TrEMBL record:
Protein name: Ubiquitin 3 binding protein But2 C-terminal domain-containing protein
Source organism of the structure: Choiromyces venosus 120613-1
Pfam families reported for this sequence: But2
Lineage: Eukaryota, Fungi, Dikarya, Ascomycota, Pezizomycotina
Organism domain of life: Eukaryota
Domain spans labelled Ubiquitin 3 binding protein But2 C-terminal: 73-232
Length: 286
């Protein structure tokens, strides 16, 4: 009588030396013969558990080595204020964007952010993401971590900054922020007032492995007032992020270049290497 906790393990014993059951299955070949044994001892349970554990651990290791995406968070978030053009600020955990609705007021506040791209050759493509939590867990539901928005629409433009000089905390005021390159936004985020992942116009770009990337986040609507404040968090995700992934994997909310538009072969600090046609498409939607 079979033990109640035992498993039936079927072992194929191949009569021909060096044959492999996955390459020469007995039910697919008429030239091979096999003998089937049924092991019904309690030890089979331990053997099955041991083998299953080994397979599970190997799958975990494989998943860790082959992550589909890698999320990066800013190394620096430095505010700059037009009203105090020579005042430099420390790097903060918060981001602030403000615009009064009139360029003549000269009181705009923008956020300068820096990402350090690791030299991780598992990934070759990057894209920017903006997200605000719909709700915070009880431990974080305090004023310090809450985001707030005032205005008609929460629409943000993101400019890439050239590599001619870098953002330096406490040394980069409004008057010394790096120039924008290209001169038009590369991303536009439309953030729901309820939170969640922002809708976006923009294209993925080739990851500059081993380099840094710097951006400026500004109010997109230049005829309406708005103010946005957020605290950069990893769990739940809150703020601006840079996602690394492999070519061919594009995520919801993004459109990419067509197949005939190849990425540039070499990265330079002053260029995102967005294909010309794709860049024109982005600019045409802004």
């Amino acid at each position: 009588m079979r033990h109640p906790w035992s498993f039936r393990i079927v072992i194929y014993v191949w009569l021909e030396p060096f044959s492999h059951p996955f390459l020469s299955h007995p039910f697919l070949s008429t030239t091979k013969k096999s003998t089937i044994y049924h092991i019904n001892s309690p030890k089979s349970t331990m053997i099955s558990f041991f083998l299953t554990t080994l397979i599970f651990l190997r799958c975990l290791a494989f998943a860790s080595e082959h992550e589909v995406t890698r999320m990066l968070f800013p190394e620096l978030i430095v505010p700059v204020t037009q009203a105090f053009p020579n005042r430099a600020y420390v790097s903060e955990h918060t981001g602030n964007v403000f615009f009064s609705g009139d360029e003549k007021n000269g009181d705009e506040v923008t956020a300068l952010v820096r990402f350090r791209i690791p030299d991780d050759k598992r990934y070759d493509t990057c894209q920017l993401i903006f997200e605000l939590p719909e709700e915070l867990p009880p431990a974080l539901d305090v004023p310090e971590y809450r985001w707030s928005f005032t205005g008609h629409e929460c629409i943000l433009d993101v400019f890439a900054l050239c590599g001619c000089h870098k953002i330096v905390a406490e040394k980069t005021p409004w008057n010394l922020k790096p120039p924008r390159y290209p001169p038009k936004p590369i991303y536009r985020f439309n953030q729901s007032k309820r939170g969640g992942r922002a809708g976006v116009i923009g294209v993925p770009f080739k990851c500059p492995l081993g380099h840094i990337m710097e951006f400026e986040i500004v109010a997109a609507m230049r005829d309406k007032p708005m103010m946005l404040h957020w605290y950069e968090l990893e769990k739940p995700r809150s703020g601006i992020m840079l996602e690394m992934f492999r070519t061919g994997e594009c995520y919801q909310g993004y459109f990419g270049a067509s197949e005939e538009e190849d990425w540039d072969s070499d990265f330079e600090d002053v260029d995102l290497n967005i294909p010309p046609k794709a860049r024109a498409k982005v600019r045409g939607n802004l």
